[in-house]
Amino acid sequence: KGMLIPTRPRLFSVCRNEDLKEMLESSKESLKLEAMKRIVGLIAKGKNASELFPAVVKNVASKNIELKKLVYVYLVRYAEEQQDLALLSISTFQRALKDPNQFIRASALRVLSSIRVPIIVPIMMLAIKEAAADLSPYVRKTSAHAIQKLFSLDADQKEQLIEVIEKLLKDKSTLVAGSVVMAFEEVCPDRIDLIHKNYRKLCNLLVDVEEWGQVVIISMLTRYARTQFTSPWKEGAMFDENNEKAFYESDSEEKKGHTEEKPYIMDPDHRLLLRNTKPLLQSRNTAVVMSVAQLYWHLAPKHEVSIVTKSLVRLLRSHREVQYIVLQNIATMSIQRKGMFEPFMKSFYVRSTDATHIKTLKLEILTNLANEANISTILREFQTYVKSQDKAFAAATIQAIGRCATNISEVTDTCLNGLVLLLSNRDETVVAESVVVIKKLLQTQPTQHSEIIKHMAKLFDNITVPMARASILWLIGEYCERVPKIAPDVLRKMAKSFTAEEDIVKLQTVNLAAKLYLTNSKQTKLLTQYILNLGKYDQNYDIRDRTRFIRQLIVPSEKSGALNKYARRILLAPKPAPVLESSFKDRDRFQLGTLSHSLNSKATGYQELSDWPAVAPDQSVRNVEIIEAVKEWTPTVGKTKQPKSDDKFYSDDEDEKEEEGSDSSGSEDSSSSSSEGLFMYFTMQMFSSCLAAKYHFPRQPCLYQPSMVAVQVILSNSSDHSLEEIHIGDRSPASLSIHCFNTIERLEPEASVTVSMGIDFSDSTQAANFQLCTKEDQFSVSIQPAVGELLMPSSMTEQDFCKEQGKLQGMNETSATITMETANASSQAISKQVLSVANVGVVSSSQNNFSRFAGRTVSSGALVLVSLELKESSTALLTINTEKTVMASMLLRDIKQALTQA
Amino acid sequence: MIHSLFLINHSGDIFLEKHWKSVISRSVCDYFFEVKEKAVDPENVPPVLQTPHHYLISIYRGKLFFLSVVQTEVPPLFVIEFLHRVADTFQDYFGECSEGVIKDNLVTVYELLEEMLDNGFPLATESNVLKEMIRPPNILRSVVNTLTGGSNVGDTLPTGQLSNVPWRRAGVKYTNNEAYFDVVEEIDAILDKSGTTVFAEIQGVVEACVRLTGMPDLTLSFMNPRLLDDMSFHPCVRFKRWESERVLSFIPPDGNFTLMTYHVSSQNLVAIPVYVKQNINFFETGSCGRLDITIGPKQNMGKTVEGLMVTIHMPKVVLSANLTATQGNYTYDLTTKVLVWDIGKLNPQKLPNLRGSLSMQAGAPKPEENPSLNIDLKIQQLAISGLKVSRLDMYGEKYKPFKGVKYLTKAGKFQVRT
């Protein structure tokens, strides 16, 4: 293996590696590190160091981080070649996958999944699944990367991997989003259905995703949108102008104008994507800007596309390679949408210091932008370019002038004259290119230009470039009747020089001879025969073939048969003029910004953009049900400049509010109906979005003080950094007595913790307000109990109940007649409903039509007695006896509500 | 995405290779060498090439080719932008991006590449995060390391990667808290023979050097933000705030960074600070030519033009130049055919002039086109667009930082056609 180090003799290299082996086996950390550094140096230079594998792999569990990292580098490089030995290291990684430190877990997964050894596929699979459920978003991100690695190692795992992808797509962390979409694109880009539910979330997270992830997500969403929304282009530009209004305001105005047509209304999700990607045009990352530009190109209504122009033009200030790609894309765009770039025409002016491929692309764009109004400016600019010392570029400019001349009829003559002037240029390539372009131009309008043909014939002797000579000969032959005097003379000259000419020139000479023979045989018969004879013995078989064919075609003989009659029609048939068009025409069949677009051929793994569907698929697939009641807790006032939420720092604030607003309205019922069990009243509240808190009343006696109501709070960290020192700060009213939970030192991202506290509400439903603080921040929290939670059950007999009730008459009695929902008419149902709103005890009753409940207020211990007497046709008399009259009326309301509702 | 990376020097040696997936033989570069050979000038090598099984995407920087190999569809700009980011990182770590320093720091380079991509997808590209994981080399430490066996790899684990402000390290501390901003504007212009402006625009950049303790939250506002037509921001800038209030609000990265780049609205006429009177002639006979250039001040807002320099790429037939400069020095490089006239400060009383004769290869036809002049210049304490910073405020921290703004105008791609 030493042979692979080519410059050194074998013996020496072996010695050298022996040396390294010794160092690796020494007990000194520094020697090992030095050895690993040298080995990595060898790898970097592309030299083989694989025979050191056993010595290196021993150090995989080293404590020294740098040493360990270098061993990882080595391992990943050579594991594929040394599979058996590589297996020795696996257990180390398996152990590290369980490490409490997220970075160690992540790095273990990174290396494990990079070891391309098929035998460990099941281990990798398991590790990926576990990591995908890790609490740390960083580890989850790593697992998304590992998915792709495993997929390329063993494509059979696809189905299982898709399950993991599906799970990770639901992840709310901005860290994970880009990586999982990347995995999606690589493993199952056709599973569009997995995106539906995550679509809005991805749109909303986009601004905060790291820049590389943004590119991948935007590209995927472009493809997604083309399958899910209807075309915003259908009804023509006029209509497009209005649809923004139609979407935001009422469509009444809209309908007046377009009564017949069904108005196009953009799907709000379509709009969401356009709106949320727009700010990214200001990204410093050129790839991000380009991806937004292509998204607008492929998805936005026509009149909105032009907002990307400025940003694209800005990218032209970037590195040469960036310019190249951006110019290619602008070239494609500018063919269809001149207007987009015309105001920036001057940004495409060529500098003498530009690289040739940049110059050519700028030229292409300038040509695309040319119109009647600006053509004189452009032609003036082109005149400078034609003189360029870069001859390839000068030639390209001449082509460009030709294209302008065909596209804009006003300047055809000017261009032709200019090109004719170039025929006397000293540079051969310039002349040749001019001739070729003039030929093409003349073909489009041959009638008026015999002068130019004559001029070219005159210059013929001085022109040496074969392509140019051939073009002139073809021109003279094709239009020989317009230059009857000159044509035979040119043929005469050619007869003289025939043997010395290049093949293409010879072929055109034969063509010229044949055409002249048919139109002017008197003067050219002999010349033609002479040339045909020369061609007959030419070294090139194409020329011999052509000569034989032409002779049979034009010279009548017994064998020549029927074709001879049509010789003139065959050779002098009117020929369509060549179309001068951009090489970027139709390039937008490829998604802009892609490799395929750049190469103009389909690259491996390219995903086609589908056409817009004629009818939009079901829009509701993107709806996400909201299970939790979400209400925003306002952050403390004092800190003015504190950003509202750390997590969504830069996201679209409006959107968030919108969403949250609509969520909470719809979710109140769901929370009350989900208050399952009899003993729990459940409420959830949420801080901005970094620390979420849910609280509920466990309906247990408070351990700390009997006068307090027990409250359980579940704190969860929904941000992606850990929160420290969570504790309770100031409270209001100041007299409020609270038993606080112990300070929580640290709460990892995505982790949650349940704490219990006690609050003395003093038998009042007034909210308890206090500050919940973290190390950096504080939030004001307000817990407002329902009146039923301020009670605790009291057990008593029916007799005691009646006795106590007797004492609490008059002022202390509140009652109402209610009509119950039929479903609640049974005594079990009544108990259930009452217990759901109040923490009271059931008093066993001897009478079927009576239900009784007893409780005491937590703070002062006053009795609260609830009785319900059923009357006919599901009406009932609800009575509450207690000293606490305010509480009585509130409780009455609550119980009444519970019983009258289904 | 990115499969492999090869670093290739000017003479075509591959001196570093790194593979993020399975190993690809370096023979894949042969396709590239073929194209490079044809292109003559390395800048003319197209950045995207297709080979039978791979796609090659390359950038050319610091006389080096960064050649990446990809196997499937990927946005080419994604790769190009990343490669430039790699080059930027080398620059940041080693002070320059050249073959020499990369070879000298091979292990650090390798460690960096390892962290920057995972499976070919960018992982950590923020310099702040990288520096927490891999320390940049410095002489003192490398001496200490060799003595003690210490390492370059940070033993703290990078927290920045997890934070929602990944560009800023946690726990930054300074005794002197300072925030300096440089507003640098470049004039891109093409002037024609007669001195008329064919094309001119101003591109600006706000470079920042911020050394502040803790987590400061800064706002920078301008007197005349309307001037700004199009801009791009560092990811730290809150875009919404700019949209609504036209102020830059951000938690800055630690150290040097580019806060924003901008383009000045094209409606504004661009002030061209100098005029150039030139006369370059090549004669039909006698194989010689004449050159006469004078530069004078034009719209320079009363400031001094410094660092004035003229660069001319002469046609190949020009063998030598025999010139006299009334101010500064000129050099003519015979191999590259580049004439450089380094003038220095422009004195309005005594305009600098360069004149004399050019001798050409005998018998060669006279050049078709006169070479264009590339002008370099600097004007201190002036943003030519008139942009002015009005104030800088800090929130979130209690100390008072030192603040400062400097302005500078430079010539960008400033070309005079002759």
From TrEMBL, chain A:
Q: Which Pfam families match?
A: Adaptin_N, AP3B1_C, AP3B1_C_2
- Write down the SMART domains for this protein, in alphabetical order: AP3B1_C, B2-adapt-app_C
Role noted for this protein: Subunit of non-clathrin- and clathrin-associated adaptor protein complex 3 (AP-3) that plays a role in protein sorting in the late-Golgi/trans-Golgi network (TGN) and/or endosomes. The AP complexes mediate both the recruitment of clathrin to membranes and the recognition of sorting signals within the cytosolic tails of transmembrane cargo molecules. AP-3 appears to be involved in the sorting of a subset of transmembrane proteins targeted to lysosomes and lysosome-related organelles.
List keywords of the entry alphabetically.
Answer: Cytoplasmic vesicle, Golgi apparatus, Membrane, Phosphoprotein, Protein transport, Transport
Q: Where in the cell is it found?
A: Cytoplasmic vesicle, Clathrin-coated vesicle membrane; Golgi apparatus
Family according to the record: Belongs to the adaptor complexes large subunit family.
The record's region (Disordered) falls at 637-674
Bias kind Low complexity: ranges? 663-674
A GO BP entry: intracellular protein transport
Q: Which organism is it from?
A: Amphiprion ocellaris
Q: Which InterPro entries is this protein grouped with?
A: AP3_beta, AP3B1/2_C, AP3B_C, AP_beta, ARM-like, ARM-type_fold, B-adaptin_app_sub_C, Clathrin/coatomer_adapt-like_N
What GO terms fall under cellular component here? AP-3 adaptor complex; clathrin adaptor complex; clathrin-coated vesicle membrane; Golgi apparatus
**What is the recorded membrane topology of this protein?**
Peripheral membrane protein
Residue stretches of biased makeup (Acidic residues): 652-662
The protein, known as: AP-3 complex subunit beta
- List residues of the AP-3 complex subunit beta C-terminal domain: 654-766
Task: Indicate the segments forming the Beta-adaptin appendage C-terminal subdomain domain, all copies.
Answer: 790-900
From TrEMBL, chain B:
MHD domain location is 176-417
Which controlled-vocabulary keywords does the entry list?
Cytoplasmic vesicle, Golgi apparatus, Membrane, Protein transport, Transport
* Record InterPro entries: Adaptor_comp_med_subunit, AP2_Mu_C_sf, AP_mu_sigma_su, Clathrin_mu, Clathrin_mu_CS, Longin-like_dom_sf, MHD
**A GO BP entry:** intracellular protein transport
Q: Which PROSITE patterns match?
A: CLAT_ADAPTOR_M_1, CLAT_ADAPTOR_M_2, MHD
**Membrane topology type:** Peripheral membrane protein
**Domain of life, source organism:** Eukaryota
GO annotations of cellular component type: clathrin adaptor complex; cytoplasmic vesicle membrane; Golgi apparatus
Q: Tell where it localizes.
A: Golgi apparatus; Cytoplasmic vesicle membrane
Family to which this protein belongs: Belongs to the adaptor complexes medium subunit family.
Question: What job does this protein perform?
Answer: Part of the AP-3 complex, an adaptor-related complex which is not clathrin-associated. The complex is associated with the Golgi region as well as more peripheral structures. It facilitates the budding of vesicles from the Golgi membrane and may be directly involved in trafficking to lysosomes.
* Name recorded for this polypeptide: AP-3 complex subunit mu-1
The scientific name of the source species is Amphiprion ocellaris (Clown anemonefish)
- UniProt gene name: AP3M1
